[in-house]
């Protein structure tokens, strides 16, 4: 078992004992497959928590890739930093502590892949702020699009009906993910 796999398992065990809303192994498998399929160079993650999905994504990326992940809670960002460092991934991960609604507009460059797993009622705002930093073909995955569909209604309506995205809901257990590609 490589170091990143070991850290993921450790986080999964911790999540079972205390409430930690990580993406988990089932949805994580879909996330990892999508990353492997598109091989993004630049990734934006909104909602780091303690680094589980950043590790999951990062271990699928080539050495010259960059993940920028934003976490609103400083303590969780510090734990994420430790977990990501211990996972010894080849992808470079930059953790930004702060409110994504303030931090996304400050980011430079563009993103090939976006993973949103933060405050559900804010998904639409996060995407709108990131839109000028994404391009045709960028894949956006929004977690919890099943159990929190009501809180994410504006986001889901936008990616499904705006004509700017090709979007599909993927059911996983009791929940699911909305996978959208920028047209």
Q: In terms of topology, how is this protein built?
A:
Layout: H1 3-17, H2 24-38, E1 42-46, H3 52-58, E2 66-71, H4 74-86, E3 92-97, H5 100-103, E4 111-116, H6 123-130, E5 134-143, H7 153-161, E6 165-172, E7 175-182
Characteristic key phrases:
183 residues, alpha/beta, Rossmann fold, 7-stranded mixed beta sheet, 7 strands, 39% helix, globular
Rg from Cα: 15 Å
**CATH superfamily annotation:** Vaccinia Virus protein VP39
- Helix proportion range: 25-40%
What can be said about the biggest beta sheet?
7 strands, mixed
CATH architecture: 3-Layer(aba) Sandwich
Q: Quickly name the level 1 CATH class.
A: Alpha Beta
Helix and strand sequence = HHEHEHEHEHEHEE
Mean pLDDT across all amino acids: 91
How far apart are the first and last residues' alpha carbons, in Å?
A: 39 Å
**Multimeric state:** single chain
Net shape: globular
Strand count: 7
Number of domains: 1
CATH topology: Rossmann fold
Taken as a percent bin, the fraction of beta residues is 25-35%
> What is the structural class?
alpha/beta
Please give the count of helices: 7
Strand order of the largest sheet: 3-2-1-4-5-7-6
Low-confidence stretches: none
Molecular structure report:
With 183 residues, the protein is α/β, with parallel strands linked by helices. Helix content is 39%, strand content 27%. The chain has helices at residues 3-17, 24-38, 52-58, 74-86, 100-103, 123-130, 153-161; strands spanning 42-46, 66-71, 92-97, 111-116, 134-143, 165-172, 175-182. Strands 3-2-1-4-5-7-6 form a seven-stranded mixed beta sheet, sandwiched between helices. β6 and β7 (175-182) form a beta hairpin. α6 packs across α7 (153-161). The protein is globular. 44% of the residues are buried. The mean pLDDT is 91.
């Amino acid at each position: 078992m490589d170091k990143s796999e070991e850290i993921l398992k450790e986080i999964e065990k911790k999540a079972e004992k205390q409430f930690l809303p990580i993406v988990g192994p089932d949805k994580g498998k879909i996330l990892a497959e999508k990353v492997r399929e598109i091989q993004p160079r630049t990734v934006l993650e909104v909602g780091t928590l303690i680094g589980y999905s950043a590790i999951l994504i990062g271990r699928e990326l080539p050495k010259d890739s960059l993940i920028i992940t934003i976490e609103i809670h400083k303590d969780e960002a510090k734990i994420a930093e430790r977990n990501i460092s211990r996972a010894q991934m080849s992808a470079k991960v930059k953790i930004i502590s702060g409110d994504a609604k303030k931090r996304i507009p400050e980011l430079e460059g563009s993103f090939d892949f976006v993973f949103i797993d933060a405050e559900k009622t804010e998904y639409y705002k996060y995407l709108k702020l990131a839109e000028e930093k994404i391009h045709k073909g960028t894949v956006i995955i929004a977690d919890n699009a099943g159990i929190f569909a009501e809180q994410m209604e504006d986001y889901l309506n936008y990616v499904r009906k705006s004509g700017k995205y090709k979007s599909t809901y993927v059911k996983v257990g009791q929940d699911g993910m909305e996978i959208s590609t920028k047209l």
